[in-house]
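hey m, so remember when u said the tokens were messed up on ur end? i reran from scratch. heres the input so u can diff it against urs
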Amino acid sequence: MHLPPHAVRPDYAGGSVLNLAATLGAHHGVPTPHAPYRHPLPLDGARHVVLIVVDALGAGQLRDAITRGDAPTLASLTPTPGPVTSVFPSTTMAALTTLHTARAPAEHGYLGLTVWLEEAQAVVNLIRLYDVYTHAPLADAGFLAAVPSLYRQLRDRGVAAHVVMPAAYRDSVLTRWACDGTEYHPYAQPEETPALTAATLPPGQPSYTLVYFPEYDLVCHGSGPDSPEAHAELRRTDRIVADLLVALPTNGDTLVVLTADHGQSPQPPDGYVDAITKKVMKTALRSPVAGEERAAYLHPQPGHHAEIAALLAPHATLLTADDAWTGGLFGPPTHADPRFRPRVGDLIAVPHPGHAIRRPTSPAPMLGLHGGWTAEEMLVPVLSARL
């Protein structure tokens, strides 16, 4: 599988968020088939693990924020000594589910915001669970819970498992599966997270807590990751993390790790490509385009593969889904679940930097995107502190 020079391949051999989650779970006794996280973490003797996930905080964005003086708290934490990657596609559905399950996208099946589901014979939005073309709801979503959550496995081993997340996410199908086994601590405003997180560390029982901040991602999408609005939101997050660290006990048995699910890249409005029109979708594709604007999954009609490739080749790197699957883009092939292979179509188009594939079912154009394999999207920070 040949990738362009600018592509950052997910490092499932030890340098990805998959390996980070697997190692944090293994510290509390959860077995994993995956390679351990290769960078050292001060885990010895830690009874409590707190994993903070700042959605969309790429390694480059954090570096720039520290240079600007916007992230003094994050600058004070210990960084990993080498690069760490997200998964592919570099998007929340795939990467955050990996952090919740310690499984690769090819194992848990959440392979993008929208995917082709054989079970429903439709392209389905995996957040809202509806057919993206007809908007009909998915009648039965139980089959999506393909692997056990990391938290259920922790709880089965006597470890208290908690998540501190927005109240709005509490009752979603994804949350009920991916956070199974946890005590859910909802918040209305992220400023509530320090007190909520401190309450999850019982003195007599080992614990594992995930704290999730989605707000930065939302601002980056709407205003762009280089915008004043995004900078302000990251300063806010830094202040909240400072308060959270102060709220936690400092008796030496708590490890705090901060990471992201993916980064964000600025998206010029004139970089959106309208190659997949309604006419093309009706005549040359078997189903609506799935995936992401920065990583599209397509099902060409028989005899139309060359036509679709010609439309997209000036704007994107094209590869067959079979090559991507067997080449380990979605996770180590030895652990990939063949049931999920159809979810990524027959042809994958990853737009060149600055480009995005718009289609009739796309949301309004955004000024920040992710999902592809540029360094801005793929490289994430891992910071730690032993308290």
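this time it looks ok to me. The chain has 14 helices and 20 strands. if urs says something different then somethings off w ur setup not the seq
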